[in-house]
Amino acid sequence: MPAPLRIGNASGFYGDRFDAVREMLTGGPLDILTGDYLAELTMLILGRSRLKDPSRGYATTFLRQLEEGLGLARERGVRIVTNAGGLNPTRLADAVRELADKVGVPVRVAHVEGDSLPVPDGYLTANAYLGGDGIAACLRAGADVVVTGRVTDAALVTGPATAHFGWGPDDHDALAGAVVAGHVLECGTQATGGNYSFFRGHDLRRPGFPVAEIHADGTSVITKHDGTGGVVDVGTVTAQLLYETGGARYAGPDVTARLDTVRLARQGPDRVRISGVRGEAPPPTLKAGLTRLGGWRGEVVFVLTGLDIEAKAQLVRDQFADAFARAGRQPDEVRWELARTDRADAATEETASALLRLVVRDQEPDVVGRALSGAAIELALGSYPGFHVTAPPGKGAPYGVFEARYIPAGEVTHVAVLPDGRREVQEPPARTRALQEAEQPPLPDPLAAGPTRTVPLGLVAGARSGDKGGDANVGVWVRDDEAWRWLAHELTVERFRELLPETAALPVVRHVLPNLRALNFTVPGLLGEGVAAQHRFDPQAKALGEWLRSRHLPVPVTLLPVSDGEASVTLLPTRDGEPPVPPMDSTDAPEVHA
User: Is the full-model pTM beyond 0.70?
Assistant: First the structure.
């Protein structure tokens, strides 16, 4: 039986903590160190970089991290697997060899090709999401460093695990377990307390990066190096499992993992075991991501201070409507958003102020640049009292659009370029299964009726939200069976729309994951054309879950803690043994319901 494979992660995105590579290589034992540098927005950034210099298109940060990391990895016998190759894995592999010669560290470098697709007219990049087979072939051939382009985030784990354990394409359960572990690792410190709803009470000044101990059957233990900050518990792992996912079937090129079979258990301090994961044959298609420049975008944020905030905002809107009419050209899209950050009788000018945000988009740069800035500047002495803006209006900036398409897996040639230069083509899985929504599982028995108090949902539930193109997801979970009996029946699609009015006119799909005591909501279209288009105030829906947790609804008093210890509302004891209630002010008195 092969020994467990210890895989660590040192990057969750292009721009993550620079010294994480050193931290992971020196902080404890590892077999494989991965780095995830790619995201939908990153591909657009790299595409624009390649336009300026065809030899670029990869994550240059990775090379600088290797200047020290290459020697450390060699000394400790750690192999490195990264998707930092972006749009140009061949050139990055060459650059790693050049760096190795420069620093005097002999390493065998391999890379994976085949994700690059013909770019349609009007687009900047087109790449298929490959699986882990090419990575596995490179490691089996003795590579010390493996560089890829656009592979799935989980492939950085399935590839090494396949090579180490000798899994075949039909070892679906083992592969699915590795996919789940890879999904937990991919976003770095989000698995160790970063962006975590119940962050209070933990030392999160500098969370350590996560480690997965993968076993031959695909089970794993999520942990981190001893002595590092942050926390690994069932909650942090649950949160990351729900991040940027949809239904129970989590499809990829290696396998379709059933998230509704995942079981989590605390194994010790900062150790969570993942078991029970079942897998199915992957779909016959591969996801492909395409990026393009969508047009030009301009923005002005007006500061409205003191009294008559709504009237001041309306005056600015009217003045801009008049300016656009006189110019004879209104931008293709005009969006206004008033954020009432002001307080009555405020002690500082900043807290007495609200923000009125204007965003315009158009295919012509002048319409969102010179025309917009000119109209804003001309209002300086002739608009609402106290007129000023957060920053001078500037030129319009290009914005991007991400699109997902699906292509037959057989149309992509997945190639492992081995350390000796040989090219090994990876065949797509012979067995496939068309992706279908899983049947919704039965709900638990509802909680018995009893008294409730209107409090924030976040007193009893955690949440994690994110983006996939223009779609958002919000995963919501609770920490015990009684709370799950309540949540499963209370947080319906209708209640979700009621709590988040921005979703009211959009399709909302609810997925039930009983093993995780979780509900996962997907909201297609909430983010418009995706993060690069900056359609919304929170363009990646990062805080959508926290907004949901802040919303008030009737919660059974039996579920409310005496002191929440984590949420922002502290519950206070009451007389005569009554259930505790949150502190009140004149605008936020909890309602009590029979």
Answer: yes
